[in-house]
Design a protein that fits this description.
8-stranded antiparallel β-barrel; Porin; 2 domains; mainly beta; 8-stranded antiparallel beta barrel
Length: 307
């Protein structure tokens, strides 16, 4: 059996609503991990653009079947899996939007061309199916990188030595933007302190304090607790996806702002690069889904210390 290393890719294309036939753009970021000769598992963050009354995106986990066990030149693939969406639905009343959440399915078909230098390009068709909501069809072009021909080569590619045992703890200081999921996507500053504890080689847990300003959200800061799946693609570069809860610690809509008043869901993706034995650069994208139309995206970039 041949094992392949993980693949990281991005895609961009055009999308059409199957209900209104309105058109917009679509883009996504995806990580795929081999399961067997003909099966991959993937996690994709898919943005379905800005239709006249809906701004929707979400995350999907898919199981893929591909025609060739070792990707060479032309490969055909098909994938399907559950899709968790976040939809900013625009209204003509005040307030002029509401944040809706739900579940659907993402079905995909792809034709991939693998180059000899580990890069690949692909043409993909995506079909989003949701219960009692609008469905979409999209076509996209994408580019990606396969980190090694075989999984065992991933950590020694380019002459690098195999990774040493991973430190158990990491503390990150991060700055970035908080983007309100509203009709106008208002942007403000965000800051975070993140404490990460490795439980195993591929599983971590984090506690993160996040503060945000300059947007009309009803929370100013809070604490997130998440469980992560993590994969090292080289001795220095890793990817991860996390899910958990976000507890609001200050809420402008309650009399006692120091009392936790709101519990939200939180899904995140992260990329990290160890530029020194104890130091890491990290970028994280968080999606906070609330129950009161105060969803937000938080994009953070920072530096951490591992010990």
């Amino acid at each position: 059996m041949t094992a392949h290393a993980g693949e990281l890719d991005g895609l961009y294309g055009q999308l059409k609503s199957d209900t209104s036939f309105d058109k917009t753009y679509s883009w996504g970021i995806e990580y795929r991990e081999p399961i067997s000769d003909h099966l991959n598992g993937s996690f994709v963050w898919l943005n379905e653009g800005h239709l006249p009354s809906n701004h929707r995106d979400g995350q999907a986990v898919q199981l893929w079947w591909h025609t060739h066990p070792d990707p060479e030149r032309l490969v055909f693939e098909g994938g399907i899996g559950p899709y968790r969406y976040y939809d900013t639905h625009l209204l003509s009343t005040s307030p002029d939007f509401e944040d809706k959440h739900g579940w659907g399915a993402l079905a995909s078909a792809s034709a991939d061309w693998y180059f000899a230098n580990h890069w690949f390009a692909f043409l993909r068709l995506n079909q989003v199916l949701t219960q009692n909501k609008y469905d979409t069809s999209s076509v996209a072009l994408g580019f990606g990188y396969r980190f090694a021909a075989k999984l065992g080569e991933a950590l020694v590619e380019g002459g690098a030595q195999p990774a040493q045992p991973t430190p158990r703890w990491e503390v990150d200081g991060m700055l970035g933007e908080r983007i309100e999921n509203s009709a106008h996507s208002e942007i403000g500053m965000a800051q975070a302190i993140d404490v990460r504890r490795m439980l195993t080689e591929h599983i971590a847990v984090t506690a993160t304090f996040i503060a945000g300003q300059d947007t009309k959200l009803d929370w100013r800061d809070g604490v997130a607790v998440q469980l992560w799946l993590q994969q090292y693609l080289t001795s220095r570069f890793s990817v991860g996806a996390g899910a958990g809860v976000f507890v609001v610690s200050e809420d402008d809509n309650v009399k006692d702002a120091s009392t936790p008043s709101n519990l939200a869901a939180m899904i995140s993706v992260t990329l990290a690069y160890s530029f020194a034995p104890a130091w890491v650069a990290r970028v994280t994208w968080d999606r906070i889904g609330t129950g009161d139309d105060h969803d937000a995206d938080i994009l953070l970039l920072g530096v951490g210390y591992k010990f």
